[in-house]
Amino acid sequence: MPEGDSVYRQCKMLREALEGSVIVSSDFRVPSLATSDVSGRTVVAVVPRGKHILIRLSQAPDAAELKSGAEPLTLHSHLMMDGTWRVFDREPAGGAPTGSGGEPQAARSKGDAPAGSGRAASSSRARNGMRTSRPGASPYRPRGQARRGGSVRSRAEARTRLSADVSIGQGSHTIRAILRTEDVEAVGFDVKDVRLVPTRLEDEQLVGYLGPDILGPDWDLEKALERLSAQPDRAIGTALMNQRNLAGIGNVYRVEVLFMSRTNPWVTVGSLPEGKLREIVTLAHKLLHLNKDRSMRSTVGQAPQGRPLFWAYGKDGQPCRRCGAVLRRGEIDDALLTVPAPDGTTTAPGTAVQHLRKIVWCPRCQSE
Ligand SMILES: [Zn+2]
């Protein structure tokens, strides 16, 4: 499930693939952007804001004409429950082993070739050599970061090359946005709230309402505590998920942080013992930072293979690893969370809807 740490990693991948490159063509598959085209613009930055992904684009190349919409734009997307961006190599023109196609080929040869097939490996090395000596080669290669919801895709999958046209192939109906540069194709599968807005209006139209960004360079613990405390009647479990209070926490971290701090999810913010709120938020901040560069999200340390990655998340019905009581599953109302409108245009941030989410907690050690 995408949370602040997955968004951070997705942005890192997109940054390495796109930043500084010119978009040669774009393809938006949402009605509101059906006629939009950002080709000719350069990707100037890829920025995570809480759980939002902002891809900033330069002004249009023919901006001199001052036609409307030529100013710098930001492409906004949100992963919500199951969205993901992936980066693919583009097929080298003419089939020649150019740099951009060499590396994944090499990876496959090494991984899949039967023992003793030295020829394949050495020719791969030759191609690799060509790549590294190629001037201007961009460092866009996926490095295991093409993952979804914290789980790592297989090596082969992570290095998928655009051997068939992904834009019309299997699964293409879930594509919402494609940005192509000379070297790569960045594809947004199932991403939500895809919008293009003038970069100068990012705050006003996209992310200005967000609380301090837990993985942002300007993280402000005191401000987050202040915003959380401003609504003392809110259940702590709900308050932590309200991106207006602080941005970046999703259901996994909510469940884990409340378990680790022995806090009942339904206790109101105002009735938490002195210092508890600070402890909870500090812990969340620490966990997200620990995981932001990890290939597998874990709240139990660097978990060796086969060991559980979480204390409570997804473990209802199993014994609590602290006290042995059976972990329970319940529902918490995440009303007042920000919900983008399906067409991404009409709903103001913070629209209230009842939104029941499944959480897991220990009835013994999180009793209050
Ligand atoms: Zn327990």
Query: Class of the largest domain, according to the CATH hierarchy?
Result: Alpha Beta
Strand percent estimate: 15-25%
Helical content, roughly? 25-40%
Write the CATH architecture name of the largest domain: Alpha-Beta Barrel
The string of secondary-structure elements, in order, is HEEEEEHHHEEEHHHHHEE
Strand order of the largest sheet: 1-6-7-5
Number of strands: 10
Round the mean pLDDT to the nearest integer and report it.
77
- Per the CATH scheme, the topology name of the largest domain is N-terminal domain of MutM-like DNA repair proteins
Terminal CA distance: 27 Å
Number of domains: 2
Q: Give the number of helices.
A: 9
Name the overall outline: globular
Largest sheet: 4 strands, antiparallel
Q: Considering the protein shown, what is the CATH homologous superfamily of the largest domain?
A: MutM-like, N-terminal
* Poorly predicted sequence stretches spanning 5 or more consecutive residues: 94-164, 337-351
Cofactors, ions, other ligands: zinc ion
Rg over alpha carbons:
23 Å
